[in-house]
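Long-time lurker. I teach an intro course on protein structure, and each term I like to show students one example going from raw sequence to a predicted 3D structure in token notation. This year I'd like something fresh instead of my usual example. Would anyone be willing to generate the tokens for the chain below so I can use it in lecture? Attribution to the forum is fine with me.
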Amino acid sequence: MALGLPGKFGASEIQPSTVMKVKIEGKGVLQGMTLLDTATKKPKCHRFGSIPFALPPTGERRWRKPQPLPSNFSYGTQQNPGNFTKPSSPCPQMSRFGVKSSSEDCLQCNIWVPIGSPPKGGWPVLFWIHGGFLQYGTNNADDPSDLLGSTDVKCVIVSPGYRLGVFGFLASKDLEPQESSPTANFGFWDQRLALEWTYDNVANLGGNPDNITVGGLSAGAYSAFHQLAHDINPSRQRQIIRRVLQFSNGCGVQPKSITEVQQQFECFISVLGIPKTWTKSQRVEAIRKKTADQLVDAVERMDQKFFRPVSDGKFITTDLFASLYNGSFGRRMKELDISIIVGDLTQEFQLYKAIYPPTSHQTLVERLCWDYPRDIVLPVCSQYEPSKSPSIRSDEDWSGIFGDLYADLQVHSTLRGLVQSIAHALPVSHLHRYRIDYRTQSVDKTWPREIGATHATDMSIWFFGNGNDLTAKEKGVVAEWLRPVSSFVKGEQVDWGTREINEVRYLTADGAMTIKNDEWWKTKLPLWELIRKTTIAQHKPRDSKL
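-- Reply from a regular --
Happy to contribute to a lecture. Here you go:
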């Protein structure tokens, strides 16, 4: 099974004689291209690529909060506009995932703009965050040009690059001596700066900064949730996000503490050959001098290869999931009139079981600890101990167990728990659930048809082919599915069809659309309850005894 994501940025035909010039107030002029429909030769949308939104996070800026562009930065002039027709530079990442050319200078946006004059107030804006476990991928992997050119969805789409893996989510108190500076979650800070750049500049592209939807699939959805949490925190000065698209991710576990991830940092230092006897500042200076290739090679040689977000108290508050459990998160969403589309696919596990699967109970525990706190992983995995599961005998069994459990932790159980938690305050008119069992023929190029609608196969639905051709029948099915999504992104009243939180808008394998009860509602929630109760017990104040 292929795990890499095919590049889609150049999939559409370009009309060389047509350019799109835009002046960014105070930053000069940039030039993009007009994309054509390959069959009709009619314009589909305008596209800009690799637009910097921050200084390169290199050298002394590596593992630091991203820095905005300086006041004297210029994209170009009217006479000599900057050429922004090329794809963004992907962040360096492990070779297994198929991105060959990369650069740490990756804080760049790709932007798509509808053809024609914007409506009064400007086009709605979709801030789209690419997925890839926060370890791999690129904002060049998706192509929404046919979505804008052939459906009712008309919006400016901004997709940022951000730091991944060890570059974006290495965490340690050693990284920054100043208490006010972040020591983790650099990739999330990248996304936030790109979102602020979008808010400040999208009007120059015909977009409405007061009508922004943030969305993504998988790690992109996980990111969208955490961007929302950061955005609506009462301590923030301005609200940017109005709506959220959360495709195939549930966000149900409070991330590890900075203390817990210190062990991974120490392992990373050791693999790089840096002496333990050196001071903290010497060690940080040494890793900042390593090349990107040396850092990626070190990650390849580590047992725990994923670097994940951390409850640092700065970007991710330590009580985030307590606020979700007690209903205050949902009440805040209602107060700010925020709507959400959230859902899953029927065969999510088929991809997950191939991502570094375990071969025993102990390796199951260690593998899940890549992503979750050990205090959560241990009770979750206890039911699979050999003494309790004597029928488990082979590597294949553990791969299947891992696929099912990982899909529940990442998507099915946590998604339903999230819905249940926010629905205490958020009305159903603002909470739109779906399930998909449908896949287009173009997906067969990447994913075997026999595995069904697995994780990420729905990108050809959400982006109307996502750079690949749809059959005539598929175009009809997908266009109909996207009609309420168009209303959602515009901020209009949405005719989703569901009336209860346990109902989903369902797309069947043969392309039929119906409203039905979620058959997994009761079976998937117990895992969420286990996580919730474990988290609450761990954070419950204890009486001190002298």
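Some talking points for your students: The CA atoms of residues 248 and 344 lie 5 Å apart. The longest strand covers residues 13-24.
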